[in-house]
Amino acid sequence: MSPAVARSGAALALRPVDESGVDDALRLAAIVFHDHPADEIRERHRELLLRCERFGAYDGDRLVGFLAALPLSLSVPGGELPCAGVTFVCVLPTHRRRGVLTALMGELWRAGARQGRPLAALWAADAAIYGRFGFAFATSGMTVEIDSDRPLGLRVEADPRPLRLLEGPDAREVVAPLHERSRAARAGRPRRDGWWWGTLVLPEQDEEDDELGPPLVVVLGDVDAEEPPAGYAVYRTRPGDDDAGSPGLVQVQEFEADGPGAAAALWRYLADIDLTTRVRCWAVPEDDPLPLMASDPGQVRVTQTFGCLWLRLADVRQALLARAWAAPVDLVLQVHDGVLRGNAGRFRLTVGADSAVTYEASDDPADLTLDVRELAACYLGDARLTRFVRAGLATEHRPGAARALDAALRTEHLPFTLDEF
Q1: Residue 81: what are its φ and ψ, rounded to 5°?
Q2: How far apart are CA 308 and CA 31, in angstroms?
Q3: Which tens digit of pLDDT belongs to each residue from 180-215?
Q4: Which regions of 126-244 does DSSP assign to beta strands (E)?
Q5: Is 321 known as a binding-site position?
Q6: Is 235 a known active-site residue?
Q7: 141 Cβ partners below 8 Å, 6+ apart?
Q8: Three-state SS for 116?
Q9: Would you list the domain boundaries of the chain?
Q10: Per annotation, catalytic residue among 58, 133, 137, 421
Q11: Where is the signal peptide (predicted)?
Q12: Tell me, which fold does domain 141-307 have in CATH?
């Protein structure tokens, strides 16, 4: 790592954080995020950090800044790419606004260049910070709630195949193939291994709400079928409290279905669970069909929409060449990147009718001028560049250029990210 970053005339040392320093990183995070998790969850965080590349800023022997990068394989349109899952970013309050985070980010970019990693992604606790480093929202989601004090009316026939209930730890082998298949259909999803399933998807205790019960997994499909199930839902329940006026809740953590019939069967099951009157799914894709399927739109409500994963194109050329494209395009892009100068410049992007892609430096006049941040927002297929042009955040020099790029970037399904890290 580079040796130091200036701090009010002194110098902070930048160096890797070895395993013996992980507990220091967790103590720093507890101070910065005002969070003191239970022992089980703290151990979960420790296991996560041990899987990460870890960067630290030290004032003498004290860790005052920290950043971890979880090695991910992230689905992108038509494939997947190595990605740094940036997490546990924290700077001690006494050392803020002194270039610590900028220096740690610099180490992240240098490590990514050495390892051939073109993407970085994160979930932001403080959204105001990351735009200046070139990150942008690249996936979005919505929270849906079902009034389940009456039968759920749907305009779609439910798949008649049997439902079966699995305990969390036993469910992974059954549902993982369907999850993996869904990654190919929707960009923005990390590949999961056994640790990820057991520790982040199906832990015994919910990290956000300790009143919720252990995870349950309902699966749709024949027990002896060789194919993956047609759908599944991971959920937890919380009993109602009449004295407090709190209804019984079905908290859906994850929902996958390979078609509307499978989705109808699973949603009806969840809405029919005894002693509950509300189903809440904190995140489904914005193009999820459930609100359209409801016979009574008032019974299924979208309570919020939100940005999920922030994405950074650390190597624009590698990222563009690796992605699938929906239509031919031939445009000269003037790309601005104030952090990673190798991305900045004027480039011709060409996607042929045979899907062959080139991205090379060009002296021709630009058709579009945009920042790497807007390119990241559009990369997975979520945002539309024409909206950034209307907002004054990108400039169209040739009429129709933004629309042409949007057509080439389009995906059949909106990208979606459920996994937090």
Answers
A1: -140, 150
A2: 25
A3: 999 999 999 999 999 999 999 999 889 888 899 999
A4: 136-137, 140-147, 163-167, 216-220, 231-238
A5: no
A6: no
A7: 283, 284, 285, 286, 305, 306, 308, 416, 417, 418
A8: coil
A9: 4-117, 141-307, 311-409
A10: 421
A11: none
A12: Aminopeptidase (3.40.630)
Do the annotations mark residue 102 as ligand-binding?
yes
Q: Is the pLDDT of residue 7 over 70?
A: no
Would you call 130 a catalytic residue per the annotation? yes
Give the active site residue among 130, 135, 255, 269: 130
CATH, domain 311-409, list 3.30.1050.10, 3.30.470.20, 1.10.3720.10, 2.60.40.1180: 3.30.1050.10
DSSP-derived 3-state class of residue 358: strand
Find out whether 417 is annotated in a ligand binding site.
no
What is the amino acid identity at position 122? L
CA atoms within 13 A on the CB side of 25: 27
Q: Known binder of ligand: residue 101?
A: yes
Q: What CATH fold (topology level) applies to the domain 4-117?
A: Aminopeptidase (3.40.630)
Report the C-alpha gap between 109 and 339 in whole angstroms. 9
Model pTM? 0.92
Q: Name residues whose C-beta falls within 8 Å of residue 5's C-beta, 6 or more positions apart in sequence.
A: 11, 12, 14, 57, 98, 99, 100, 102, 103
Say whether 87 counts as a known binding-site residue: no
